[in-house]
């Protein structure tokens, strides 16, 4: 079932391998990356509920993330597809060639929206590093992380829209026993936050901020959600509160 990184060469198709899926071996390949050559590199095997598992669709749609074995695909697909239209991906045409194919109007709109993301993430400081670096204010690097941040924001939004479509089509799901205080839509966001739980130390965090194109997990939760009006509506966040800032960024 697992075909590794380099032995797939699939042009312009999304492939989800459902073969050999059994209850005891309930894995599907779900993470892929749209490379420069427009190949899909299948990266992960992930657990996925089978027909016999108790797993509301809302949980499946909200299970998200990219590099954990608990991932499943709606947001991952959204994230990876959005990479095809981020600051790097946009420079490639449908065949993977580096070729500008957007109109100037589209490009200008993209750059303006992308700048919003750059400024937003770049203004986030990390006070937990202050005691180690007393004379330096460390902030996220909004430029180096732009592609991943665009994909994070786009991926969450697309997963949410997909789940909304599911609810429109099949009706609202019942509340989950034990968590009945939360609506399915609220659980969508809770589960998304849950998969990013991580504890880190000073050096790891500092290294991540300096070298990693991915934003530290805490902000992969907070920022994309705070950019969604739907999140604020569902959680009744007052305008101007931390998770409902007046200035929201949206590229896709
Ligand atoms: Zn990514």
Automatic annotation (TrEMBL):
GO cellular component: plasma membrane
Domain Peptidase M13 C-terminal: 75-251
Protein name as it appears in the record: Neprilysin-11
Stored PANTHER family: PHOSPHATE-REGULATING NEUTRAL ENDOPEPTIDASE PHEX, ZINC METALLOPROTEASE FAMILY M13 NEPRILYSIN-RELATED
GO biological process: protein processing
Species of the source: Portunus trituberculatus (Swimming crab)
Domain of life of the native organism: Eukaryota
Gene: nep-11_2
Gene Ontology MF term list: metalloendopeptidase activity
């Amino acid at each position: 079932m697992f075909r590794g990184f380099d032995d797939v060469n699939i042009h312009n198709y999304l492939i989800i391998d459902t073969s050999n899926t059994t209850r005891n071996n309930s894995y599907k390949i779900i993470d892929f990356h749209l490379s420069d050559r427009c190949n899909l590199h299948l990266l992960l095997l992930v657990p996925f509920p089978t027909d016999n598992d108790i797993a509301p669709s809302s949980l499946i749609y909200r299970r998200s993330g990219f590099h954990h074995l608990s991932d499943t695909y709606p947001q991952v697909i959204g994230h990876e597809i959005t990479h095809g239209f981020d600051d790097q991906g946009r420079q490639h045409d449908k065949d993977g060639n580096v070729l500008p194919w957007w109109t100037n109007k589209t490009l200008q709109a993209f750059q303006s929206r992308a700048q919003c993301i750059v400024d937003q993430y770049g203004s986030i400081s990390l006070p937990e590093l202050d005691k180690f670096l007393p004379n330096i204010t460390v902030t996220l690097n909004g430029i180096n992380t732009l592609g991943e941040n665009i994909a994070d924001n786009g991926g969450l939004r697309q997963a949410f829209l997909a789940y909304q479509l599911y609810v429109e089509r099949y009706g609202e799901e019942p509340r989950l026993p034990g968590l009945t205080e939360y609506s399915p839509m609220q659980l969508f966001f809770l589960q998304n936050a849950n998969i990013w739980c991580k504890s880190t130390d000073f050096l790891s965090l500092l290294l991540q901020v300096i070298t990693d194109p991915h934003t530290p997990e805490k902000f992969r939760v907070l920022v994309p959600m705070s950019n969604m009006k739907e999140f604020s509506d569902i959680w009744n966040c007052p305008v101007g509160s931390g998770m409902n800032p007046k200035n929201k960024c949206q590229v896709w």
